[in-house]
Amino acid sequence: MHYIRRITNVDKETAEDILQEVFLKIYKNLREYDEMFKFSSWVYRITHNEAISFFRKQKARPELVDNEISDDMDILSTIPADINLRDDYVKKELAHKVREVITVLPEKYRNALILRYMEDKSYEEIADIMQKPAGTVATLINRAKFEFKKLAVKNHLNK
Predict the structure, then answer these.
(1) Which H or E element spans position 35?
(2) pLDDT digits 0-9 by tens, 35-49
(3) Residues 90, 122, 21, 108: is their CA dihedral positive or negative?
């Protein structure tokens, strides 16, 4: 679910619809699973393909939606008094800016960064998911970090 929301920036209900389709595809294609690959890599690949299919059906590019704002508002009433809200706000603001920069990266770079740093996947797992050699994945991640840094500086991410 988190992976779907990170790569698509859709609302929770749409992400749930995509996830439901993913589970159906996993169930229907379970016999085709190749044990040479990690099961989670196979599932991520199906998820990635299903997200792409969703947008092809919609014939629209995903829009940036801050999925966490409504969730965070419900949580505000449960915050203990001893938490430093300013630090939390700064962290959330930085996270929001990072998401903004990630959304404008080319898809191949965005996916590589999300899988590596947000989903904490190894290079081998990313290679399986993206169906690319591990060396290509390493190059993609390095280029993605360079592009991210360039866009972050351009968009004053450090302010």
Answers:
(1) none
(2) 888 898 889 989 988
(3) positive
> What is 51-116 written as a DSSP string?
HHHHHHHHTSPPPP--THHHHHHHHGGG--TTS-HHHHHHHHHHHHHHHHHHHHS-HHHHHHHIII
Residue found by looking up tokens 């999300």 in the block:
114
Closest C-alpha among 70, 59, 69, 61 to residue 7: 61
Q: Using CA atoms, how far apart are residues 26 and 86, in angstroms rounded to an integer?
A: 43
- Residues 130, 42: Cα–Cα separation, whole Å: 10
Instruction: Please tell me the pTM assigned to this model.
Output: 0.59
C-alpha distances (whole Å) from 80 to each of 28, 36, 77, 85, 86 are 46, 48, 9, 10, 14
Closest C-alpha to 52, from 4, 110, 2, 121: 4
Query: What is the token pair recorded at 154?
Result: 């351009």
Question: Distance (Å, rounded) from C-alpha 106 to C-alpha 102?
Answer: 9
Q: Domains (ranges, CATH) in the chain?
A: 2-154 (1.10.10.10)
